[in-house]
Design brief:
Blueprint lengths: L1 H16 L3 H4 L19 H27 L3
Length: about 70
């Protein structure tokens, strides 16, 4: 699981490192596979904000849970 997590983090780091003002202001390419969200084009900035917000919230929960396990909450 840690190797998979490290791989995903490297993917996100690479995507962020390659961002320019133009790509950040751009739109995603629609996917053709079924799923959620519905196929469509989305603002790159919105997608990046969603990823970073999710990461932040997961970290807050992990820290809270670790504090509770350690008895420091």
């Amino acid at each position: 699981m840690l190797a998979l997590r490290a791989d995903r983090m490297a993917t996100v780091r690479g995507a962020i490192a390659g961002l320019t003002d133009a790509t950040l202001a751009g739109m995603t390419e629609p996917v053709t596979e079924p799923g959620y969200p519905e196929p469509g084009s989305y603002p790159v900035r919105r997608c990046l904000q969603a990823i970073l917000t999710e990461e932040w919230e997961h970290r807050l929960y992990a820290e809270r849970d670790l504090d509770a396990l350690a008895g420091t909450a």
